[in-house]
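Researcher: Predict the fold of BRCT domain-containing protein.
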Amino acid sequence: MEEMLVYFEGVTAAVVNYSPADTNAIRNELQMLGTRVRERYTPDCTHLMTPYQQGQDYKQAAIDGKIVVSYAWLEDCLTARRVVPHTDKVLYQPIRDENGVPGMEQAVVSIAGYKGPIRNDIRELIEAAGATFNQNFTKKTTHLICYRAESEVYAKALLFKLEGQMLEIVNHRWIEDSVRNWRRMPEESEVYRKLGVEVDFEERLDAEKKLRMDVEAQLEEEERSRRNLQELLEAEERARQEMQQQLLEEESQRISLRTQLEGEGQNREALQHQFSRSRSDIDS
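Model: Structure tokens for BRCT domain-containing protein follow.
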């Protein structure tokens, strides 16, 4: 929570295109978090909160590369009591316009098997797309967003299809991609034919694969660093040995020179002694 407060204290946000009541409520929530709130978008804004990708405020914020989100992002931040990445959900993006995705107006969509926040998110996406949400699966339903096969609703859907009803069974990616791309995505695509549980399993596998690759890359980097350090230590050891060898050679040369000098000194004393004897013999 403290980290979230620090984040929002550094935010300057404009809230536009909501109803007056919603705008005031959102601004109050932001101000309670310590955010500086502007009436309209200005260059010092870090965030723009708007339900639609429309208007001069949106265009300029997009051009300026600012963070543009819908209220759904702030709502999830408050619920999670932390800053949620604004790219995590399609719902965090303002929708293209209030008229819905072309071709979705005839769609009647039901949900089966999804629970909790994800179910609420799917329902909001259905409504944002301009389709009709059907709480209970009936023969009016044209699309069933289904999580798993082990359900009474799924069996009922298969029976309806056998009876000739025009019914598409898809996963949550279909509605997400339809809203994200603002066009009705082809239900017959293999990507959307999988059940939601299959999609989640594949995503977990991909996440685990990415994690494993990241760990392997980190281990390889650590191994390269270890080898580089080993090579550096070996080079330093070679340099130390070479220096030691050089010192030994210099010491040997010094000893040899001292021995030579001592020998010369002894020779000089012997010559001096012989000279003294010769002088003594001459004097006598």
